[in-house]
Amino acid sequence: MQLANRIRAFRKLKGLTQHELAAETGISLAILGTIERGNRKVTPQELSKIAGVLAISIEELQGK
């Protein structure tokens, strides 16, 4: 599974909307949307913020 799909799946598993995840990470809704669609690579800082809010490790989020 691609990282974009994993982010979306974990977000939904935690019961968060894109808007809520964007607000909690400080990542704009537009950027989060492009990340989840796989149209933009995630920076290490963004990945860390997303993993933190989703309460999972970066490795787990990456599927490692």
Distance between the termini: 11 Å
Low-confidence stretches: none
Give a quick account of the main beta sheet: strands, pairing sense, barrel closure. none
- The residue fraction in helices comes out at 55-70%
Strand content: under 5%
From the alpha carbons, calculate the radius of gyration and give it in angstroms. 10 Å
Average pLDDT confidence is 95
Morphology: globular
DSSP strand count: 0
Which class of secondary structure composition applies to the elements? mainly alpha
The topology string of helices and strands comes to HHHHH
User: Helix count, per DSSP?
Assistant: 5
InterPro entries: Cro/C1-type_HTH, Lambda_DNA-bd_dom_sf, TransReg_Diox_bact_type
Organism: Paenibacillus cucumis (ex Kampfer et al. 2016)
Keywords: DNA-binding
Domain HTH cro/C1-type: 7-61
